[in-house]
Amino acid sequence: MSEKHIKTSSQGQGQEPSSSCWPSGAGGEIKLTRYRKLRPNGDTYVYEKETRYDPQRRYNVVLRTRLLGKIPAGGSEMVPTRHKSRSKAAAKAALKTGTSATALPRPVVELQVRPGQLLDYLSSESGLGTELSRAFGSEEGLSLLSLAWCALCSRGTLAEIADWGLNHALPASQELTRAELELLCFDLGSDRPGQQDFFQGRSELLAADGGKALLIDLPELDLLLLCSRAHFQVLSFARLPPGDAARMVLMFVQEELAAYCKEDCLQGFISEKDLKPDDEAAWQLKARIEHFAAHCRPLFDLTGLTSDEEEECWRGRLLIFFTALCLYLKMEAKLKQTQDSVAADLKRLQQISGGAGTELTAALSSLLTWLKNRDARRVLAWFDGPRMHEGSALTPAAQRRMSQECLTRDLLFLRYFGYSAWAEQHPQGLLL
Q1: Closest Cα partner for 323 from 178, 179, 186, 135?
Q2: Average pLDDT of the residues of the chain
Q3: How far is the C-alpha of 184 from the C-alpha of 180, rounded, in Å?
Q4: 159-197 pLDDT, tens digit each
Q5: Biased-composition ranges for Low complexity (predicted)?
């Protein structure tokens, strides 16, 4: 879904927008941003949102979002949209109860945790942000980390990555438009010393595997990945020539991967055919990588690029995919750890209570069921849902997610997940 953003200053129309996405000044001034969304029927809807930078939270807070109008398909002028009327059933229900059928009961507190905060926590805990800044420099490293966030949370195309970034707070100091994204991919793909420095640092993770790395082949992307089973992470990559004959150059590619590793870190390889059926960690790692690769396949569409640009742009996009995969695997490991901790506490509490149901056991049981049905991308999408201040046109599903039951479950999740910075400031929403 394509979007165009038009920025206007809070001090008046006609001023040039700042190149930085972080407002200047203490507390940050209010910024007005207009953006467009193209609908499948060809109509373009024009929206306006107000944001202000919160220096304590370190991200832009959305104050208000409203629909200005739409540009009909084939037209150039914006026209107002009509208000949606309530259904007859909703109107009758309002008359019977004497209340508005669209009224939303406000929970005790409103959860303000967004995907960027969870990803910032994961990036800091894993050290990935520091690794990227060390290898590629502060500006390019943060830009690469920002694009990895976008790739993880969007549908995987270059356009979707750019659109997601324009609507969310990112580590990078500048907004990453589609044109800037293309240039950044080329620059990152051309930076061979930065790539080698980054991958050499990651090769130190092999110590826990006894120096033997796991090779995972992704034939649909013509890609070979070097992985650590003990750390549930990817370490490096190499490109395979397309076609079945590519498997004949496996030894050559292994040597290329070995060149990225620090001396004495790599003692050998374990290929997929050598895996034992009971090596659960390795098989789970392979399944997660293949699942995420299928999601990111559109990122590698190089249509329109010249042969001179193709190799560097491909490597740049692969770095985005690789960094996003690192975060995805880190979050999957954290979710598994969270699920195990919730299950253990639930079992212990049930034994203590003799099987009698309590409010706490019910909340933990709800959280455990929720975790079993969600991977990392679905959890991030959940925390990217609508908020009350962003408008009153909320679906029934959006209203349910703002209920006290969902709020308590979300706060329990944040505490078990390890992200307790927000939860500890709002103990009234917790059962523990």
Answers
A1: 135
A2: 75
A3: 6
A4: 888 888 888 888 887 777 777 788 888 888 888 888 888
A5: 9-20
218 - beta bridge partners? Answer: 223
What is the distance between the alpha carbons of residues 226 and 215, in angstroms, rounded to a whole number?
5
pTM of the predicted protein model? 0.70
φ, ψ dihedrals at 379, nearest 5°: -65, -45
CB 140 within 8 A of CB 130: no
Strands 212-218, 223-228: parallel, antiparallel or unpaired by DSSP? antiparallel
Which range has the top average pLDDT, 2-11, 41-50, 278-287?
Answer: 278-287
Strands 268-270 and 31-38: unpaired
Whole-Å CA distances, 4 to 10, 60, 160, 277: 19, 19, 12, 50
> Contact at 8 Å (CB) between 423 and 407?
no
Tokens read off for 166: 């324009």
Chain segment 279-288, per-residue pLDDT in tens: 888 899 999 9
Question: Looking at the predicted structure, is the pLDDT value of residue 18 above 60?
Answer: no
Q: Are 335 and 382 in contact (CB under 8 A)?
A: no
What is the C-alpha separation between 297 and 179, in angstroms, rounded?
Answer: 20
Please state whether 222 falls in left (phi above 0), alpha (psi between -120 and 50) or beta: left
Model pLDDT for residues 206-223, shown as the tens digit of each residue: 877 777 888 888 888 878
Q: Where are the alpha helices (DSSP H) in 353-375?
A: 359-372
Specify the residue for token string 């293949």: 290
pLDDT in tens, 296-318: 887 777 666 656 667 788 888 88
Token pair listed for 147: 């694009």
Q: Buried (b) or exposed (e) across 202-230, using 16+ Cβ within 10 A?
A: bbebbeebeeebbbbbbeebbbbbbbbbe
Contact 174, 317 (CB under 8 A): no
Alpha-carbon separation of residue 165 from 5, 51, 149, 159, 172 (angstroms): 12, 15, 8, 10, 10
Give, to the nearest 10 degrees, the angle between helix 307-352 and helix 128-136. Answer: 160
Fill in the amino acid letter for 334.
Answer: K
Torsional sign, CA 295, 132, 380, 236: positive
Secondary structure (DSSP) of 85-150? PPPHHHHHHHHHHTS-TT-----SS-----HHHHHHHHHHHHTHHHHHHHHH-HHHHHHHHHHHHH
Range 406-410, long-range pairs (CB < 8 A, 24+ positions): 407/107, 407/108, 407/109, 407/111, 408/363, 409/363, 409/366, 409/367, 409/370, 410/111, 410/113, 410/383
Which one has a higher pLDDT value, 47 or 108? 47
